[in-house]
Amino acid sequence: MKKIIFLTGVSGAGKTTIMDLLLEDKRFVRVCSTTTRKPRPEEIEGEHYLFTSTSEFEHLIEQKKFLEYAYVHQIAYYGTRLDLIEDVLSQGKIPVKTIDPIGMEIIQIKGKIKDQYLCFFLDIPEEIMRERILHRQPDMNTMELQHRLDSAHEERIIAKRLDCIMIDTSPSIEDVLAMVKSYL
């Protein structure tokens, strides 16, 4: 089995749900992204993200601590710290991380951890995606919804370049989890 699990895909495809279900098995450990954006009220440090200052993030970049990072939407940095993954591996556990398709592409291009991971691209048909997003955020405006749908189109293009296992998550969540586990 590969040592690191990355879950990527479109909005509403179930990345977090699948990760949470995998985490019920104590062999798996969540690796949070590090970000410079401010936490939202419901977010918990170390559970959702690791929040840091821009200067500290840039210091970590200089020290080459990131497996991948990006400055997203001209708002904040987001990245995957290599030392956090290595810490989980040193405990004999399996790191699990949700990641943006662009971040996954950067990891693949850099090749630092080549052959050490499995990547799953979770996808859903647009109508199901629209339903799930609006169920999760019923007050979302039309422009934001369209932005997410447009982003999904771009993410699918990126996914075709990635060494990811493609999974349609429109069946039941139990079926999706079984598909993921069948590769582990």
Describe how the helices and strands are arranged.
Blueprint: E1 4-9, H1 15-22, E2 28-30, E3 33-35, E4 49-51, H2 54-62, E5 66-72, E6 76-81, H3 82-90, E7 94-98, H4 101-110, E8 117-123, H5 126-136, H6 142-161, E9 165-168, H7 173-182
Parallel strand pairs: 1-7, 1-8, 2-7, 3-4, 8-9
Antiparallel strand pairs: 3-6, 5-6
Q: Whole-Å distance between the termini?
A: 6 Å
Q: Give the low-pLDDT segments.
A: none
Largest sheet descriptor: 5 strands, parallel
The fraction of residues assigned to DSSP E strands is 15-25%
Radius of gyration: 16 Å
- Order of helical and strand elements: EHEEEHEEHEHEHHEH
- Determine the structural class based on helices, strands and strand pairing: alpha/beta
| Main sheet strand line-up | 2-7-1-8-9
Helix content: 40-55%
Kindly report the average pLDDT value.
91
Oligomeric status of the shown chains?
A: single chain
Q: Can you count the beta strands?
A: 9
Count of DSSP H/I helices: 7
Silhouette: globular
Keywords:
single chain, 184 residues, alpha/beta, five-stranded parallel β-sheet, four-stranded mixed β-sheet, 42% helix
Question: How would you explain this protein's 3D organization?
Answer:
This protein is an alpha/beta fold and 184 residues long. It contains seven helices and nine strands. The strands form two sheets. A five-stranded parallel β-sheet has the order 2-7-1-8-9. Strands 4-3-6-5 form a four-stranded mixed β-sheet. The N and C termini lie close together (6 Å).
